[in-house]
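hey
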């Protein structure tokens, strides 16, 4: 098969999901982001700390909307965000004066580490990037960014996922822990 022929794809689009599945995905993502946002804006925002970052929106898609995906499992959610945050902060500290290089190094290294540790979680790439380009509020956190928002925010969302995703009889979360 030629190089460009591979880009045609080779399977059909998967079937859509039913209304009940959509409803539970909505409920979970609403409650998960609401919990993290409420804690952030009501308790932490005035302190200079944070609990909500953009990559959590993508995590919500996985842990509430694609709950059977290997990328949505607790090990991937927690490990992906924590490792990626650590890599992102390190890249900024080493190469923050060259943000284009720090950004590329952070994302690429985060992906490699997630692969090596079997914690691949696509929003982790954004968590690493946010550590570099997130501005002064993120940069002031330094390595605290790994704990808060990355680990603690992901843990809050995981708690909501465990409760909500197991309410309906036809949903079960997680598929695996480790």
């Amino acid at each position: 098969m030629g190089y460009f022929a591979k880009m045609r794809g080779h399977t059909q689009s998967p079937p859509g999901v039913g209304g009940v599945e959509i409803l539970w995905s909505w409920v979970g993502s609403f409650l998960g982001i609401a919990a993290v946002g409420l804690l952030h804006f009501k308790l932490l925002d005035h302190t200079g700390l944070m609990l909500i970052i953009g990559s959590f929106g993508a995590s919500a898609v996985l842990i509430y909307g694609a709950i059977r995906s290997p990328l949505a499992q607790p090990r991937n959610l927690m490990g992906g965000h924590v490792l990626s945050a650590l890599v992102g902060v390190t890249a900024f500290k080493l190469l923050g004066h060259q943000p284009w290089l720090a950004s590329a190094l952070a994302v690429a290294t985060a992906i490699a580490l997630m692969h090596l540790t079997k914690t691949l979680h696509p929003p982790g790439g954004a968590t690493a990037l946010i550590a570099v380009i997130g501005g002064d509020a993120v940069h002031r956190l330094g390595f605290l960014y790994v704990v808060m928002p990355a680990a603690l925010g992901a843990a809050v969302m995981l708690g909501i996922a465990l409760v909500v995703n197991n309410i309906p009889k036809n949903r079960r979360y997680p598929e695996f822990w480790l």
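The CA atoms of residues 26 and 62 lie 12 Å apart. The chain has a mean pLDDT of 96.
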